[in-house]
Amino acid sequence: QERRERKRKLSKEMAERATRELEKMQLKEKADVKYKEWLEKKRAEEAEKKKKEKEKEKEREAELQEKRTRSEKIFKEWLQNARNKPQPALNGYGFPHGRSAGLYVQYT
Question: Which H/E stretch holds residue 64?
Fold first, then answer.
């Protein structure tokens, strides 16, 4: 009877141990699945972030290019207008040879 009791105890312990091992394996599998899902989510977020950064960079480049184009256009217009404007008369009244011809007074 003691043998049977020991056998029963041993088989019960083995069954419990097997159950615990099975639970451990299932828990590990669940953890692995959760980790993989988390990793995929993180990678997708990172890819989306990089995509948005690239789009912003493209927008910034487009704005800079537009600004350059506008600046060049305005400069060319200014240059064209500057050529068409009459030059100031430096040799007019009081400015012979481009210098002021004020009275020269020597103080003693």
Answer: helix 2-84
